[in-house]
Amino acid sequence: VTPSIIFRTFSDVPQPGFTSVSISEAQSTTALALKKIGWDDDDANVQAEIMTAAEVCGNNQGLVKMYQPALMAPSPNASKPTVERDTASSAVVNANQSPGMVAAVMAADLAVSKVTDDDSKSKPTIAIVSAYNTSTSSGQLGHYVERMAKRGVIGIALANSPEFVSAAPGGDPVFGTNPLAVGIPRGSNMAPFTFDMATSAIALFGVLTAKSKGEPLPEHVAYRKDGSMTTDASEVMEGGAIATFGGHKGAGLSLVVELLAGALSGGAVLGEVESKKAAKSWGHTMIAINPDLLVDDFERKSASVIDAVRASGDSIRIPGERSAKIAAERMKKGTLPIPEKIWESIVNTAENGLPK
């Protein structure tokens, strides 16, 4: 089911309740808002670039994050990320409460460099870099794996976050939306293949978007606090929970992400802290694979597989291609349709900072 709150991402015609804003203005105003709430120029610009890029391709991990700007504000003790436990094929990024997006970019780039920068035979085929000690959203996970794949490597990214998702109806929230993403290079003349999904039935910021617009959620994606299903976003945020996708399979996959992006990354461990939200240490795990060290002509082979899948039926849609089409259309036009309440929040924050 395609949530009605995300329908906007598939159209460039402003719908009621939306305003048309130039891409450059959206990014610059968002950067200004982030500076106003406490981030320095570099950290503000990285976050604004990533959020705007998500908005350009129609992903719901975009500017909606500024609807509640306090969620994106720095902790009082925030500082720049540092690298720990550094080896030839692995490392850990201590984000030091820097933005989740900054830590994720650093982890992704470091993983890629470990499998590409050394020309010696000892260069590892696979590198893994985790990040922890951050408490703001990393946004569209597909952004990082596409960034990795553009450098010729296979990118895999996983992220955990605070307790918003229940493992089963009636259960307490234990998981974050726990997304995972994969990026596959397809050659210099083709955009990478990217697959990016939350293991929840709907993203948290999808719920926030619905609440901001006063629209109902899709059926069967969220619970009230008594465990019954609801389409009211306010009930979800007031003691309810988001569901996993696909029943027990989605719950199992969400648990896998929790283990690999939470426990393995050095972030807050479910069951060992009062809550991951209070602990303010969410995790990312980035994996880079250099296909050239495993097989010849991987990019050609991956393109062949994708082409064969696309040709296998009239209704086949390859993940990432619709987003790429939306991005191309919006870049050509130079504007974005943004929900009015979200844009008002960004502009107000850019002018006045956080509410007193």
Helix-strand blueprint:
Elements: E1 18-22, H1 23-36, H2 41-56, E2 82-84, E3 90-94, H3 100-116, E4 126-134, H4 141-149, E5 154-159, E6 165-166, E7 173-175, E8 180-184, E9 193-197, H5 204-213, E10 222-223, H6 233-237, E11 241-242, H7 248-263, H8 276-279, E12 282-289, H9 298-310, H10 321-333, E13 335-339, H11 340-352
Parallel strand pairs: 3-4
Antiparallel strand pairs: 1-13, 2-3, 4-12, 5-8, 5-12, 6-7, 8-9, 10-11
Distance between the termini: 39 Å
Low-confidence stretches: 1-11
* Overall spatial form: globular
**Annotation field: number of helices:** 11
* Percentage of residues assigned to helices: 25-40%
Q: What share of the residues does DSSP label as strand, in percent?
A: 15-25%
Which class of secondary structure composition applies to the elements?
alpha+beta
Biggest sheet descriptor: 7 strands, mixed
Spatial order of the strands forming the largest sheet? 2-3-4-12-5-8-9
Q: Element order, helices and strands?
A: EHHEEHEHEEEEEHEHEHHEHHEH
Mean pLDDT score, rounded? 91
Overview of this structure, please?
- The chain is α+β, with helices and mostly antiparallel strands.
- It contains 11 helices and 13 strands.
- The chain has helices spanning 23-36, 41-56, 100-116, 141-149, 204-213, 233-237, 248-263, 276-279, 298-310, 321-333, 340-352, and strands at 18-22, 82-84, 90-94, 126-134, 154-159, 165-166, 173-175, 180-184, 193-197, 222-223, 241-242, 282-289, 335-339.
- A 7-stranded mixed sheet has the order 2-3-4-12-5-8-9, sandwiched between helices. A two-stranded antiparallel ribbon has the order 1-13. Strands 6-7 form a two-stranded antiparallel sheet.
- Strand 2 and strand 3 (90-94) form a beta hairpin.
- The chain starts with 17 loop residues before the first strand and ends with a helix.
- 49% of the residues are buried.
